[in-house]
Amino acid sequence: MFPPVQDLYRIAPEIVLCLFGMLVMLIDPFVPAGRQRSMGWLAFAGTLGAFASLRWMFVNPGSAYSGLLRADTFSLFVHGIVIAVAALAILGSFDYLDHEGIQRGEYYALILFATAGMGILAGANELVTAFVGLEISSISTYILAGFRRNALKSNEASLKYFLLGSFATAFFLYGTALTYGATRSTRFEVIDQAIAANGSGALLIIGLGLIFVGLGFKVVAAPFQIYTPDVYEGAPTPVTAVLACGPKAAAFAVMVRVFYGAFGHASHIWFWAIWVSAVLTMCIGNFAAIVQSNVKRLLAYSSIAHAGYILVAFAAASEIGVAAVLFYLAAYAAMTLGAFLILAYVGGTEERRLDIADYAGLGTRQPWVAACFSLFLFSLLGLPATAGFLGKFYSFSAAIDQRLVWLVVIASINSVIGSYYYLKVVVAMYFWEPNKEWTPSPMHAPMFIALLLTALGTIYLGILPDRVMQWAITSAQSLH
After folding, report:
1. What pTM was computed for the model?
2. Are 214 and 192 in contact (CB under 8 A)?
3. Which of 287, 326, 333, 450 is positioned for an S-S bond with 91, CB 3.0–4.6 A?
4. Judging by beta carbons within 10 Å of its beta carbon (0-12, 13-18, 19+), is residue 478 exposed, middle or buried?
5. Spans of all domains in the chain
6. What is the pLDDT of residues 324-358, one digit of tens each?
7. pLDDT one-digit tens code per residue, 261-283
């Protein structure tokens, strides 16, 4: 028996991504040496096809495969983020892979497969389906993290990510088993009904805690963030861009579905866990970033800090809080992806130029690149007229509406602390003597387009946020 056509429409992006991923793998062995870039363009076409297929999801909302997945506005919003991240990361990878001598078709196929897993996470309507999406995404990214096979740091990153990721997945799966034992179901709506009728017993609380451990690893929330700096530093920089944006958005999406949907009647239990994790995440990320001289590690700790800011909105446990989470994820994807692609370009062969001193005088030698990097850093800092400012504004406003004053105070202090290490890089680019030890390589069209689109996205979300925020609010409402 074939599934109903509506079910296929509701997972159309995943079908398109996987088909193009398999197509890349089948064609790649027959591509002549030196022509592997064509596989990248084929994968990019796959992301455009996945974007186009979102239309089928939009006009065919509802549950798929007997309620295992949901195609709603919330899922559509997150799909848009993760597919955009994949498309721009592919464009930003061409020159990098050529310089490193690792231009291979499987790289692009793995990005497509990872994105398909993220899409399943975004639409999962029960815990086992979420686990499947988590594994599809994770296995692909484990391999991508070690794609620079001759670099020891890349091998170390892949091994650490695999080992710690496997532990986190085991926690999630064990939590799922305990939740099933307590409620006799893994479906979010049934779990919620069981909690409303019978309360939350010890078994359910332990299950919820273990699920939080598994998902906390993916969103790099403290105290589960310890792997992040080493993995982000060792992975190929375009892969780091994907890791910092795509899996985080998908994991936050499934966290929203699990905590608000399945455990909505147990919010008095998980609220304080989220509150404490938000504080720890912001403080660890910002204070550790202050002492970094390696820009890639600095941005890795910055990624941790921003997970804390998103958790501030998450802790609000309200509809506007969910909308703020979604808007922040979109803003964060634009500015963080752009920042890491700048590192991929400036870093050069074997990623030799990642120290702050390597960016000295960049504003003189490459004004356009320095201007883009400054824009992304200012947005991460949260200056007005940038996406990061409104992301923090909506996040903090949602928390204030729920009277989480102290959480917002701590988050505001952390934002001020973060200004030091972001501005340190800007000062190096514009006020230090130019670094004369290297000559900038030419920027080709794919990287230029990727940086231009991320810069425009950062400015657009900072100046004209209404349409995206309204879409985020509609997405939050579709969860009910």
Report:
1. 0.95
2. no
3. 450
4. middle
5. 5-477
6. 999 999 999 999 999 999 999 988 777 788 888 88
7. 888 888 888 889 999 999 999 99
